């Protein structure tokens, strides 16, 4: 059985830096409403991806002071076993989705690297790439099913926190939903690159 079922959503964020930065927001009414919505989904027996323990993997693997690059996508993969809390990433045993194949192909074309044999981007996260979806959860088989439930405001808060970094971060915003996340970023300090979503559907 999934031991994380007894955990609250906020308990799943274990990185102390991010926890401290988000303390006020995670006790705010908007975040509590999001928690309530997700608890009602889980209690109703609805399958939600990624598993609860993985929802904040992007933050747990990439501490706030290590963030150099932020890749913003839309929402998690909605197939069984795919999403594990890192935007665009899948576990090593899972076939690479079309979006990720396109990402790898573009990187290979640009800088001549070999295309990886698996689609797990954990090593990117550990090197300072925050793999952030605009919405962090989804119902099985239903893309965008958790849009407008409170995640957008949460990830806006993440962008606001990162915007305060004076060292300069590169933000890669892929797709219309992600592109809107860049409106408040200080482009005198940070680099913002907007492009289409890597999905074959655009």
Explain the overall architecture:
It is a single chain. With 202 residues, the protein is of the alpha/beta class. It has one domain: Uracil-DNA glycosylase-like domain (Uracil-DNA Glycosylase, subunit E). 33% of the residues lie in helices and 12% in strands. It has seven helices and six strands. The strands form two sheets. It has a four-stranded parallel sheet with strand order 3-2-5-6. Strands 1-4 form a two-stranded antiparallel sheet. Helix 7 links the parallel strand 5 and strand 6. The longest helix has 15 residues. The protein is globular and about 45 Å long. The mean pLDDT is 93.
Proportion of strand residues: 5-15%
The CATH superfamily is known as Uracil-DNA glycosylase-like domain
Q: What are the low-pLDDT stretches, counting only 5+ consecutive residues below 50?
A: none
Provide the CATH architecture.
3-Layer(aba) Sandwich
User: What's the total count of β strands?
Assistant: 6
Rg value: 16 Å
Shape: globular
Order of helices and strands: HHEHEHHEEHEHE
- CATH-derived topology: Uracil-DNA Glycosylase, subunit E
Describe the secondary-structure layout.
Elements: H1 16-26, H2 29-43, E1 48-49, H3 57-61, E2 69-73, H4 98-111, H5 122-126, E3 129-133, E4 138-139, H6 151-163, E5 170-174, H7 176-179, E6 191-195
Parallel strand pairs: 2-3, 2-5, 5-6
Antiparallel strand pairs: 1-4
